[in-house]
């Protein structure tokens, strides 16, 4: 049963319908053949629905806000313009709460409207005895609104794959890494950082989470090794730049800075080996239902989760955990960061390569972006280290960068590109002038060289 008119559902329901049509391409794809602006009485909503359908018919995707702004300027009625702006503003800022119900109910409403039209049209066919015509009309009405998403249609979806927000990313704290990742880790991506014991892996996750919170994102940080309170103090150290062993005596500064952060951070602890990826998924659903839907998930660290498959070979269990984590990222359409250990041989390397992954080499195959953090005992004394890009689906990999690493506050500064055999891992440009021009460092030269071969095959 559905209501007879869209107005009976109320204003908030109609706004969420409009929001779904503007931001959920799959919903629009399924419903575009049965929706009509005639169902709405509000003139501003009629205009928005008409523009959405017109744009979809031509470009096979939802219109962006910039497109709607251009079309809005063509409206002559100033009062209608103001009303449309208000409706669009409400649609873009409305919450996702109960959105699944709204979409299902509105789809059924549209199906019933189509069936009603079909039955009304059948009256004349019934008088003429055209029963095949009646069957054809009713069958089409019953089939309307079915799932039509068959995947990315290469020819039709040109607009959607080249739109700027087609891959939404959350930047890392390191601009050079962001350049190579085309902005950062994207929705559905799984990023992994390898490192030796005590080398700062967990601190790198704090840096990633803290940077995202500073940018206004909601972060869920799962800790399977450290306590919730201590991880919270690590974030205090990151945001205030006060060493973690001294934050207790600077509570006044912490209470001054933390409330001003635009994003939200939730830290959840699970005992080592007790939680599974299903446990993480259930907690994310709980957080979402309570108004804390995450934009970024951090797991410290994935290897400490329990596998659903109990095998003799630990490798098989690890592969199952990593595959499930990647699947969760795709399912929830959010990026996930985690860390992992290297084996004994890799712990002593200046640059940790992919073959030094502990447990299973297949970890690297499953991830979208993977890099290592190498910090030997002299690096820990000098606050230095090296990031090595093992794998990158979105750009160049194989590069190694010197890093200034402060593991008392979680700040890592990516310096110049590092090469095996150099005396210093963080050489300033002036000290490298015998190898490279001072105006263009090696990282820029790599990009220029790549562009040259693209233009001159």
Would you kindly provide a written description of the structure presented here, covering whatever features stand out?
The structure is a single chain. By secondary structure, the protein is α/β, with parallel strands linked by helices. It folds into two domains: 6-158, DNAb Helicase, Chain A; 169-426, P-loop containing nucleotide triphosphate hydrolases (Rossmann fold), CATH 3.40.50.300. It is 45% helix and 14% strand. It contains 17 helices and eleven strands. It has helices at residues 11-23, 25-31, 43-59, 65-72, 78-93, 99-128, 131-143, 158-162, 175-180, 201-214, 228-240, 251-257, 277-289, 314-332, 362-366, 377-382, 442-455; strands at residues 169-170, 185-186, 190-195, 218-223, 264-269, 296-300, 336-341, 369-374, 384-392, 400-406, 411-417. The strands form two sheets. Strands 5-4-6-7-3-8-9-10-11 form a nine-stranded mixed beta sheet. β6, α14 and β7 form a beta-alpha-beta unit. α6 (99-128) packs antiparallel against α7 (131-143). Mean pLDDT is 85; it is low at 423-440.
Top keywords for this entry?
457 residues, alpha/beta, Rossmann fold, 2 domains, two-stranded antiparallel sheet, 17 helices, 45% helix, elongated
């Amino acid at each position: 049963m559905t209501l007879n008119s869209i107005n009976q559902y109320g204003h908030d329901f109609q706004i969420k319908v409009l929001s779904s049509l503007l931001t959920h391409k799959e919903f629009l794809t399924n419903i575009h053949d049965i929706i009509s602006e005639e169902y709405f009485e509000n003139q501003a909503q009629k205009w928005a629905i008409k523009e959405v359908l017109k744009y979809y018919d031509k470009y096979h995707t939802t219109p962006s806000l910039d497109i709607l702004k251009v079309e809005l300027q063509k409206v002559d009625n100033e009062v209608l313009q103001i009303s449309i702006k208000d409706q669009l503003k409400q649609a873009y800022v409305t919450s996702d709460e109960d959105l699944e119900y709204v979409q299902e109910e509105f789809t059924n409403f549209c199906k019933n409207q189509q069936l009603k039209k079909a039955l009304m049209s059948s009256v004349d066919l019934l008088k003429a005895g055209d029963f095949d015509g009646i069957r054809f009309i009713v069958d089409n009405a019953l089939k309307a609104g079915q799932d039509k998403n068959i995947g990315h249609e290469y020819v039709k979806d040109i607009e959607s794959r080249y739109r700027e927000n087609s891959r939404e990313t959350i930047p890392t704290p390191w601009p050079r890494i962001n350049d190579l990742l085309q902005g950062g880790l994207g929705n559905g991506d799984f990023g992994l950082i390898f490192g030796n014991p005590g080398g700062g892996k967990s601190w790198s996750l704090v840096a990633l989470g803290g940077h995202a919170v500073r940018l206004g994102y909601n972060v869920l940080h799962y800790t399977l090794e450290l306590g919730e309170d201590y991880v919270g103090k690590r974030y205090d150290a990151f945001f205030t730049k006060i060493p973690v062993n001294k934050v207790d005596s600077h509570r006044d500064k912490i209470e001054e800075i933390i409330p001003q952060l635009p994003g939200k951070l939730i830290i959840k602890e699970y005992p080592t080996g007790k939680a599974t990826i299903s446990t993480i998924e259930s907690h994310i659903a709980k957080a979402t239902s309570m108004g804390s839907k995450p934009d970024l998930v951090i797991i410290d660290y994935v290897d400490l989760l329990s596998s659903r498959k109990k095998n003799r070979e630990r490798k098989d269990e690890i592969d199952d955990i990593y595959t499930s984590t990647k699947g969760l990222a795709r399912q929830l359409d959010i990026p996930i960061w985690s860390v992992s250990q290297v084996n004994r041989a890799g712990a002593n390397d200046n640059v940790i390569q992919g073959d030094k992954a502990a447990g299973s080499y297949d970890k690297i195959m499953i991830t979208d972006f993977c890099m290592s953090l190498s910090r030997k005992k002299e690096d820990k004394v000098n606050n230095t280290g090296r990031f090595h890009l093992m794998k990158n689906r979105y750009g160049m990999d194989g590069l190694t960068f010197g890093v200034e690493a402060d593991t008392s506050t979680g700040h890592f500064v990516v310096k110049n590109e590092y090469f095996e055999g150099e005396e210093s891992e963080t050489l300033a440009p002036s000290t490298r002038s015998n190898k490279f021009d001072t105006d263009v460092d090696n990282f820029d030269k790599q990009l220029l060289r790549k562009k040259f071969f693209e233009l001159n095959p």
